Amino acid sequence: MDEALISTGTIAWLGFALGAVFGFTGNRTNFCTMGAISDIVNMGDWTRMRMWLLAIAVALLGVAVLQSSGQVDVSKSIYGGTRLSWLSHVVGGLMFGVGMVLSSGCGSKTLIRVGGGNLKSVLVLIVMGIAAFATLKGVFGVWRVATVDKVVATLPASQDLPSLLGFAIGVDPKTLALWLPLVIGLALLAFVFAHAEARKPEAVLGGIVIGLTIVGGWYVTGHVGFVAEHPQTLEAAYVGTLSNRPESLSLVAPSAQLLDLLMFWSDKSKFLSFGVAAALGIMAGSVVSALITKSYREEVFPNAADFKRHTSGAVLMGIGGVTGLGCTIGQGLTGISTLSLGSIITLAAIIVGAAAQLKYEYWKVMRE
Fold it and tell me: What are phi and psi for residue 154, nearest 5 degrees?
């Protein structure tokens, strides 16, 4: 029992450290998924998108190495399995995409801005957490389970692309689990570095470090935190994660779990999980970066319209992030690193939702 408790604390501290690296790097390099989409839609600038694609490539290649060497089994995560809730991925992704535009950033950018002193983002984080909790266990959760979650496709193999492709062409999925991420990862790297703007030190640093934090998360929870025989249950367990599965960075559900932990701290069944610790680490890393660069500044809502815009966006992100099983980090990096079909659907829906909202806002401005 003592060993399990120590391991839980170790996993939390490692999660905090990874989050701090993510937050520090995100603050210094202006890494932001919503910003990347906005740059393309409004200015045709792909610089930040290439940084994001570089992070995906690094995460893909790193996870492929961990998986093929037997150090982590990502098929045990929430991104595996034959049950594909495709409508939940689509609806959740669209809602999150629209919400992050209204809130001026996705979940990771919200945490980074909180660390930078943005008081608007503090409200966004709290409201997003409440909406996410209501979608996990509350009134929105009842709606979710009764509607979109009922629409399910049962796949002939696990929903990761190597398994699906292996089933289709009769090739061992274990072989494809190494070669398919390798091919996709190298293709992404070729696309990214073919453009001079993506070779700027800041963009390269941001993409590589952010990608490595995703790989680090999988290693910490799936290898360091793996216990073949838990001393209490005598069963295999992944210590330090609320899902009892291997996982990496994801920020919407942990925002809800953070509020839950703060409100029920005296409940001995609650503990500081890897996901919550990583979210706290992102804010801490961003604070350090903001103080070093002297960019820390407090910002408040200028008017009621801005308050309502950010609040409604936070609600959409909370509901959408849980419904789609992740955000631009939880699905767009962590999920994509497993080549999960569900993650691909959610990410595509997030991009479509964000682009549509940005186009709508531009249309409104042009009408005025």
Answer: -95, 115
Q: What whole-number distance in Å separates Cα of residue 226 and Cα of residue 320?
A: 30
Cβ atoms 217, 246 nearer than 8 A: no
d(CA 185, CA 189): 6
Query: Using CA atoms, how far apart are residues 188 and 197, in angstroms rounded to an integer?
Result: 15
Q: From CA 221, how far away is CA 348, in angstroms rounded? A: 27
Range list of β-strands (E), 189-333: 226-227, 237-238
Secondary structure element (H or E) that encloses residue 84, with its range: strand 83-84
Q: Determine contact, residues 35/298, Cβ cutoff 8 Å.
A: no
Structural domain count of the chain: 1
**How far is residue 303 CA from its own chain's centroid?**
30
Cα 113 to Cα 96: distance, rounded to the nearest angstrom: 18
Among 135, 119, 132, 126, residue whose Cα is nearest residue 306: 119
How many other CB atoms sit within 10 Å of the CB of residue 208? 16
Q: Rounded to 5 degrees, what are φ and ψ at 89?
A: -65, -45
What lies within 8 Å, CB to CB, of 118 at 6+ separation is 298, 299
Count the residues in the chain.
368
Six-digit token string for 151: 């629409």
Spatial neighbors of 266 by CB under 8 A, at least 6 apart, are none
Whole-structure pTM value: 0.94
Residue from 269, 300, 252 nearest 130 by CA: 252
Domain around 90: 2-367
In order along its 368 residues, the chain shows pLDDT tens digits of: 344 445 788 999 999 999 999 999 999 999 998 999 999 998 988 999 999 999 999 999 999 999 999 999 999 999 999 999 999 999 999 999 999 999 999 999 999 999 999 999 999 999 999 999 999 999 999 999 999 999 999 999 999 999 999 999 998 888 898 899 999 999 999 999 998 877 888 889 999 999 999 999 999 999 999 988 777 776 888 999 999 999 999 999 999 999 999 999 898 889 999 999 999 999 999 999 999 999 999 999 999 999 999 999 999 999 999 999 999 999 999 999 999 999 999 999 999 999 999 999 989 888 87
